[in-house]
């Protein structure tokens, strides 16, 4: 019997959709179980600001009486307007190792995209390039860092078996606790004096205004990057609200000239080290058991993830990037001997990748974006 993907329209099917990754991968050492509340929030049209302009259709495939796979088909009109394209996307992919199941899921996403006049299928993204994106194809030996996805190695075979091919690789880098080179420190000091720069930590007491400053720099920095679409005010506010619980303001740096933000460094404690302790839930039987476990495990976090280093275009290439990099790692090292994951970076961003290698960073993971014409 040919398998057919089913629309997720009922609470029961939505619950099955959310639960599938936990059931498939819950025993895998590198799987970090997200909080179920966070998983549901991403799919909630009332709570996720993506749905103010984009559309998503969820599908599952049942085999032998059980849900065996899931997928989200995504239409992002802001992406297509910015890139003058007709791209469709897929995300939220989870599947048993079965090409028939994977094919039914991807066929359903492709049909949904074609029905809307879209001509390519790109993914995985959940649901934009500003969110979790890419398929892990190298670096399965360690769990993902905060805000990075996970999948088992066989997913690559499933996607490529359907005809998806590489569009772009995204690289994650590991930097050990080794000290900064003295030459980098001296360069940072010279740049700071030359441009009259002030580098300061984020002010949590002025949180909304600080988010706006970071967003403006972020959108300027990434404007011309492959696949990028600027974040709306609502999307950035939503992200900031979710991250506020884990932000360490000493690791969120803004570079300013005469009070104008010209660069940002965003480094987060790697809360993924603590998340497994919650087992996907903050409460059980009405008691905050998961929350207590998470808080206890968070005391042992000894990794960070550098999500963003960026400088506005008019000051790029003048050493301001080195200044932010130096000040960020001075702040990280003040916490003790802590490893840091940096990225992701685009595989063809040669300037940044060379700089990271020169500082002793080592590529730790590769995430692949796939595409196929429809």
Task: Set down the secondary structure blueprint.
Elements lengths: L5 E2 L3 H15 L10 H8 L11 E9 L2 E10 L1 H7 L3 E9 L3 H17 L4 E4 L11 E4 L15 H8 L3 E11 L6 H13 L2 E5 L5 H16 L10 H11 L8 E6 L2 E10 L19 H10 L4 E9 L8 H14 L5 E8 L3 H9 L3 E12 L1
Parallel strand pairs: 4-5, 11-12
Antiparallel strand pairs: 1-2, 2-3, 3-4, 5-13, 6-13, 7-12, 7-13, 8-9, 9-10, 10-11
Helix pairs in contact: 4-5, 6-10, 7-8
Query: What is the overall pLDDT average?
Result: 91
Which spans of ≥5 residues are poorly predicted at pLDDT below 50? none
What is the number of helical segments per DSSP (H or I, 4+ residues)?
11
The number of distinct β-strands equals 13
Principal-axis shape equals globular
CATH architecture of the largest domain: 3-Layer(aba) Sandwich
Helical proportion? 25-40%
Largest sheet: 13 strands, mixed
CATH fold title of the largest domain: Aminopeptidase
Rounded to the nearest angstrom, the distance between the terminal CA atoms is: 25 Å
Q: What is the ordering of alpha helices and beta strands?
A: EHHEEHEHEEHEHEHHEEHEHEHE
Whole-angstrom Rg: 21 Å
Structural class: alpha+beta
Amount of beta strand = 25-35%
């Amino acid at each position: 019997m040919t398998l057919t993907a089913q629309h997720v329209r009922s609470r029961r099917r939505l619950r099955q959709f959310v639960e599938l990754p936990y059931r498939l991968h819950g025993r895998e050492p590198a799987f970090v179980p997200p909080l179920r509340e966070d998983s549901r929030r991403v799919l909630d049209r009332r709570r996720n600001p993506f749905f103010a302009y984009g559309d998503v259709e969820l599908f599952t495939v049942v085999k032998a009486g059980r849900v065996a796979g899931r997928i989200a088909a995504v239409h992002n009109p802001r992406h297509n307007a910015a890139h003058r394209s007709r791209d469709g996307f897929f995300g939220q992919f989870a599947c048993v190792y079965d090409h028939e199941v994977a094919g039914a899921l991807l066929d359903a996403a492709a049909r949904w995209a074609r029905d809307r006049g879209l001509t390519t299928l790109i993914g995985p993204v959940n649901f934009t390039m500003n969110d979790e994106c890419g398929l892990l194809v190298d670096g399965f030996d360690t769990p993902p860092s905060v805000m990075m996805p996970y999948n088992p190695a066989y997913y690559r075979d499933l996607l490529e078996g359907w005809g998806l091919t590489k569009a772009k690789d995204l690289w994650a880098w590991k930097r050990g606790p080794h000290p900064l080179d003295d030459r980098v420190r001296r360069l940072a000091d010279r740049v700071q004096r030359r441009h009259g720069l002030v580098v300061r930590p984020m002010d949590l007491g002025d949180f909304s205004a600080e988010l706006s400053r970071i967003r403006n720099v972020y959108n300027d920095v990434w404007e011309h990057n492959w696949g990028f679409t600027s974040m709306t005010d609502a999307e950035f506010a939503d992200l900031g609200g979710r991250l506020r619980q884990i932000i360490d303001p000493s690791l969120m740096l803004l570079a300013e000239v005469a009070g104008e933000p010209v660069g940002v460094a965003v480094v987060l404690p790697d809360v993924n080290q603590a998340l497994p302790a919650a087992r996907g839930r903050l409460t059980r039987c009405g008691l905050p058991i998961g929350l207590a476990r998470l808080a206890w495990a968070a005391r042992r976090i000894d990794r960070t993830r550098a999500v963003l280093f960026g400088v506005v275009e008019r000051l790029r290439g003048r050493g301001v990037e080195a200044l932010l990099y130096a000040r960020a790692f001075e702040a990280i090292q003040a916490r003790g001997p802590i490893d840091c994951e940096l990225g992701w970076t685009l595989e063809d961003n040669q300037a940044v990748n060379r700089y990271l290698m020169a500082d002793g960073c080592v590529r730790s993971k590769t995430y692949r974006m796939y595409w196929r014409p429809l």
